[in-house]
Amino acid sequence: MHVCFFDIDGTLVLTGGAGQTAFAHTLAHDFGIPEVSREVLFAGRSDRAIAMDLFRIHGVPPTAENWRRFCAGYVARLEETLPTHDGRVLPGVADLLTALVERGDVAVGLLTGNVHEAARRKLSFFRLWHHFLFGGFGDEHEQRDDIAAAALVAARLHLEGNSDGHVLVIGDTPNDVRCGRSIGARCVAVPTGHTTPDVLRTSEPDLLVESLKEVESIMALFDG
Question: What is the pLDDT of residues 93-119, one digit of tens each?
Answer without folding.
Answer: 999 999 999 999 999 999 999 999 999
